[in-house]
Amino acid sequence: MTGPAATGPDGTGMGSTGTGSTGSTGSTGTAGTAGTAGTGPMLEVRDLHVQIASRRGLVRAVDGVSFEVVKGDALGIVGESGSGKSMTLRAILGVLPPEARVTSGQVLLDGQDLVPLRQTDLNRIRGPRMSMIFQEPMSALNPVMRVGPQIAEGPLIHLGIGRAKAAERALDLMRRVGIPDPERRYRAYPHEFSGGMRQRVMIAIALACEPEIILCDEPTTALDVTIQDQILRLLAGLCRETGVSLVFVTHDLPVVAQVCQQVAVMYGGQLVESGPVHEVLHDPRHPYTLGLVRSAPDFDNVRESLVPIPGSPPSLVSPPEGCRFHPRCKFAEEDCLVTVPPLKLLPGGRATACLHHERCIEALEAERAAP
Ligand code: ADP
Ligand code: MG
């Protein structure tokens, strides 16, 4: 079933634009996410704007991003470095750096807007309802605290269980995330663990209070490939088992295809395409997604050579007028230089912010017809 805010009951939304106010700067539609659970969205981000004060000026790091995650689903967020993925996740969790702030928009967790909440209120949500796994576990772990107690801390604080029960729970989690010899490892410090084992600890901490949603920011990028695969399988398996929703930020398209049901593509602080993962990645409706797929190693084995996207991502202090991708887009026409493309809904719970998205179909058809 498709996301309720974006599409009609037949799952199509052809010709209509998404919900949300139409700002001058970006695509503001709500990307419909077709879920498997069939219930309302666990997380809904509406027209989120995050700005960062910097020496170069005001960075519009997140500029009108909307999406939703259905209960029990995994949404992947992909895009080149600097497209605003991390800032989006940090804004959702309320852990932006001091120089950044949410200037407008809503972050609805099961219907409750988190943006106006104070840190003390957010502390009651982070852990028991929503947790995050970062790229570099060493920076998220306390280096001078033993690993077991770090896992037990959340349940101790949030679940109202005693010290002994919390320790038992931590041991059980260590077992479930595949840390060998948990009784002994319970008393070890983070530096005594390998990178892969530290990331397992982070997963245990993220799961410890049985949250409704886990946000992952490139959780396996720092690990070598075989370990990456083990960790991803573990995470995906545990999420399926527990029914927890996932938002999964990565630049690794095969990983998204493996772990997520839905995908949102970000470019220059905006969402440019979204929909079911297989359809979007194998049959893109935005030239940027098409470029990403063609430049991704090991993704589409039909192609023989990788084609990098020419040019570089836009400045988020003074982004290009019109479509932000137009300077790098080979399909760009006159109107792309002046018109901000709205996120337009397509059949099948898909959405694209391209004025000429049918050019993608033509390009793919021509490619497939070629000998
Ligand atoms: P991603 O995670 O997609 O690589 P980010 O969300 O980290 O991108 O960054 C979005 C934009 O915000 C980028 O243009 C980046 O340069 C800028 N940015 C991130 N952190 C800061 C900061 N502390 N000060 C100024 N600009 C920043
Ligand atoms: Mg990032």
List key phrases describing it.
371 residues, alpha/beta, 8-stranded mixed beta sheet, binds adenosine-5'-diphosphate, binds magnesium ion
Concise summary:
The protein is α/β, with parallel strands linked by helices and 371 residues long.
The side-by-side strand order for the widest beta sheet comes to: 6-7-8-3-9-10-12-11
Class from helix and strand fractions: alpha/beta
Distance between the termini: 38 Å
**Proportion in helices:** 25-40%
Query: What coarse outline follows from CA principal-axis ratios?
Result: globular
Number of strands: 12
Low-confidence stretches: 1-38
| Overall pLDDT metric | 87
Number of helices in the DSSP assignment: 12
Hetero groups in this structure are: adenosine-5'-diphosphate, magnesium ion
Query: What fraction of the residues are assigned to beta strands by DSSP?
Result: 15-25%
The helix-strand sequence is EEEHEEHEHHHHHEHEHEEHHEEH
**Rg over C-alpha atoms, rounded to the nearest angstrom:** 21 Å
Q: Give a short account of the largest sheet.
A: 8 strands, mixed
Descriptive account of the structure:
The chain is α/β, with parallel strands linked by helices and 371 residues long. The protein has helices spanning 85-93, 119-123, 137-140, 147-158, 163-176, 182-185, 195-207, 225-242, 253-259, 277-282, 287-294, 358-369, and strands at residues 41-54, 57-70, 74-78, 100-109, 112-113, 130-133, 213-217, 245-249, 262-267, 270-276, 344-346, 350-352. The strands form two sheets. It has an eight-stranded mixed sheet, with helices on both faces. It starts with 40 loop residues before the first strand and ends with a helix. It binds adenosine-5'-diphosphate (ADP) and magnesium ion (MG).
